[in-house]
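Thread: "does anyone have the structure for this chain?"

Original post by V.I.:
We have the sequence but no experimental structure in hand. Need at least a predicted one for the grant figures.
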Amino acid sequence: MGHTEADLAQALRTGPFHLALRAALAARGLPLQRVQHHLAHRGIKVGVTSLCYWQQGARRPQRPESLKAVRALEELLQLPGDSLIRLLGGRAGTGGTGGTGGAGGRGDAERPATRSYRSPVEPSGAVEELIAGLESPADGGLHTVGHHERVRIGAGRELLGRDSRQVVRAHRDGVDRYLAIHLGDPGCDPLRVVVRAGDNCRTGRVRRHVESGVVVAELLFDARLRAGETYVFQYGFEDGTGGPSAEYVRGFGFAGGQYVLQVRFHEDALPVRCRRFSQTSTGAPRGGRGDLTLSGRHRTVHFVEQGVRPGILGIDWDWE
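Reply from O.Q.:
Generated one for you, tokens below.
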């Protein structure tokens, strides 16, 4: 039994559902677009975004048609009968999390709890459309070990840009890229957003959705990773095209390592109050509130989360 098969057997025994589904997809080597295609041939309609969120833990199948799709997945992925359904148990409506922002048109149980890298714009289908075009799984075969993110706010209160330094670990062989997703503030022009690849990566394909302000960038690594290997890389987005910004939010689909969020303000546009916050999902009330003191010299605020749990973390601020 190979490494991925061993992982699959363990995940099917212990769960949770999203890890078992992810292990099954990895073991069979099926990209989500092919899975969607096979399901459609069986008369079952499920979007690539839904499959992404199911394997991230950002959404749990609950509706009858969704449960029908899960049973079809058991057959397609050559799994024992009821092996995935069993893991849903009585908690099929319990949402996890996966990034920032809200999506309408569906019940809370199957709504994306958050949006990755600011917010997947679910109503427009922008993120689904762009990711599907790049034929990449939701997590890309990587877990984040550490992430330091720096956000810059300009003199016009706009989001100028953000820079990331990430340490990741591959959980399957052959990983050689990472998908970074950017959603600008209202008024953002994604055609003018610039992707910057830094240390140990280079820019691959870039896709933009004008109506929703979403940019998806493929970052190509300098090496192909084996399962268990770590990798350090840097990247950023230059924006400055949107209206006044009042917060920066990041969502996490599963537990991870350390996350540091730092926001720097222009000396001519300093907020009167800054707070950190957390949420279990987009629709949940914001908790974990804590005032952050603006550094006079560097005009920055920050927080450090040592062990990221599924959910949402962010900083918001008041201008007056």
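V.I.: this helps a lot. Residues 64-76 form the longest helix (13 residues).
O.Q.: and The domain at 142-318 is CATH 2.60.40 (Immunoglobulin-like).
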